[in-house]
Structure formats: structure tokens, C-alpha cells
Amino acid sequence: MDEPVIDTHAHVTLCGEYLDPARYDADCREGNVAWVLDAGIHPDDFAARKAALSPAHGFVTRYHLGVALAPHEVERATPADLDWVEQILREEDPAAICEIGLEYAQQGEHRAAQRELFSSQLALAKKYDKPVFLHIRDAWDDARELVAASGVRRGAVHCFSGGVPEARAFLDLGFHLSFSGIVTFKNARPTQEAARFCPLDRVLTETDAPWLAPMPHRGQKNRSSWVRHTNRALATLRGLEEQAVHRAVRVNAEALLGLG
Ligand SMILES: [Zn+2]
Fold first, then answer.
1. How far is ligand 1, taken at its centre, from the CA of residue 93, in Å?
2. How many angstroms is it from 108 CA to the middle of ligand 1?
3. Which of 80, 157, 214, 259 is most buried when burial is the number of CB atoms within 10 A of its CB?
4. Which residues of the chain fall short of a pLDDT of 70?
5. 58 alpha carbon to ligand 1 midpoint, in Å?
6. How much is the pLDDT for 108?
7. In the prediction, which pLDDT does 107 show?
8. Domains, the chain
């Protein structure tokens, strides 16, 4: 029997231009995707994502929602937006604060503001006891420092793109590492080494759909069912059966998110 897979990070409604939520779900059903964690970028996307992915549509795959002010939003983010994130945490009980972090590759001129935005949301994670999913790009040391200071120990580095030293730093903080299509790319040696290094009970996988499609679909619009290719790459790297990776990732993610 084929183990169901899960996807700990996708932007399902942003895939709508090529697969609307109903077709996305049909594709998930064919791919035996049990559930997806749908990531938020700004609190203003939450209501529409909730409506589009509601269980009332009779979808086979379950869509859990994250809420966040992503680092990419740093220029337009206001204190009121942070209050809005908190209001959603209080009233909607989302599954996670996802995705938050530091993006120095694209928004490097706003480092101080990004750190403040990140720290404020780590504090919210602590206050509402929510797992966090971290976006970290060219900012490993700052991210590690802020997470360490926050006391938050429940979460994952989404789309992990570091090597063994970065893996070790976040594993030591109690975090999971979520591997994406990057581990299927030939030129991703350091991340493949990190994927071998990470204890199996801290491994997660994701698509980050619509981006980052794994091989053999690299360059196409991604979708949750393709997480299998990433799991397969991990299985090969670690000398495991593919089904064992499907199972481990699902068990790890469900424990992290507190899903019954
Ligand atoms: Zn994302």
C-alpha cells in the first residue's frame, strides 16, 4: 500500500492560475496527498485562503492554514498588520505562523525592520504556543540569534537551503528542517549533505508550490503531489525505502503541528 504524503509548505491559492483549488485537490487526490500546510504571506490573504480551501468544498486533501507577515512584506508592513496577525491567531486558531523570517538576498536594505518584524512574530508564537515556519535567505546568523533569544523551540526551517553547519545550528535549537525540490538538483551538494545529516525524526518535506518544482519537473509550476520526488531523493540520499520517508515525514509533521 502506498503511504500518503503530506506537503508542509505550499501557496495553493497562488497556483490558481494553472490549477484552481478544485483541480489542485484532484491532483492531490491522484497523488495520495493527505494534507497540505498552506502558507500565508500577509494577514490580508487569510480570509480568501480560508474560503478557497474550506473543507466545505468536500476536498479529499485537508488544507491547514498558516498566517504570517513574511519578510518580503517588510516595506508595506505596519504595526496594524501585526495586530491583524495576532487577531487571526486569537480568533481563527491557524495551524502555524508560516512563513516568517529574514530575506537578505532580496530585501537586504531593510535588515533592521525585518529583524523587528521577525522578532515580533516569534513573540506571538510564544504567546499563542504556535509552531513557526522560517524563511531564511543569506541571514543564517541573524536568524539563529533571534530564534535563540525568543525561546521558541517548535518549528521548522522551510525550504532549507543551507549545509551541515546551518543544519546543526537549527537542529540544536530544536527545529525541524524542511527539504524542498532543491535536494533533487544536481548542484545542491551542501543541502544534500544536510539532508543526510539531519536525524530522520527532524526531517520534513515540502514543495513551496507554485515555485521550486523538483526534478524531473524543474522549471514547471509546482504542486503538492510532486513532493514525492523530493521524498524519493531523500530516500536515495539516506539509503531508505521511499515509503519509509513518506511515513517519517508525515509522523514528524503531524507531531510538530499537533494534528491528531
Ligand atoms: Zn513559501
1. 20
2. 18
3. 157
4. 1
5. 25
6. 85
7. 83
8. 5-257 (3.20.20.140)
